[in-house]
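pinned: reference chain
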Amino acid sequence: MIRKTAAITRPKTVRKAPALADDVRVPAPGEGKRGEQGYLGYLLRQAHAAVRLTMERALADLGVTSPQFAVLTMLNAYPGLSGADVARLTFLTPQTVGVIVRNLERDGAIVMTPHPVHGRIQQWTLTPRGTALLKACRQRVLELEKRLARDLDSKAETTIRRWLAGIAADLQEE
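pinned: its structure tokens
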């Protein structure tokens, strides 16, 4: 006969999630802590999430994700980057960049060439198809950029760009 241990014979208690009051509602973006009273880090993340979702929707019918757009953009700006360089510039993991470059290469948007000195390093560049795809993506993303800056005069836009770039430079030093 098998003896049951105490753990097996004890009844299990089911914990219920705490009930929310009927009058509690989650604030919309721009309200409460999701607005001007919120933490700057949270507000930056909230804005980033909104921009990324809008960009994903704008690029969906082109079959391009926002990380793919970032990779294409960086390869256009800096041809011959390695996968590791692309990962650093796009804030993506090397594994994610590996998947993205394989898919973009398969689709004929980028091509790999070995580094002229360090043959083990793979350098990526856009193909004519990749350049055309990036151009189509950019038209849509530029509309989003215009929407982001529509209520800003040029001085305010310059100040915000300087502030955002300064944050990245300052915090990267730590």
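why pinned: The chain is about 55% helix and 5% strand. The first strand starts at residue 110 and ends at 114.
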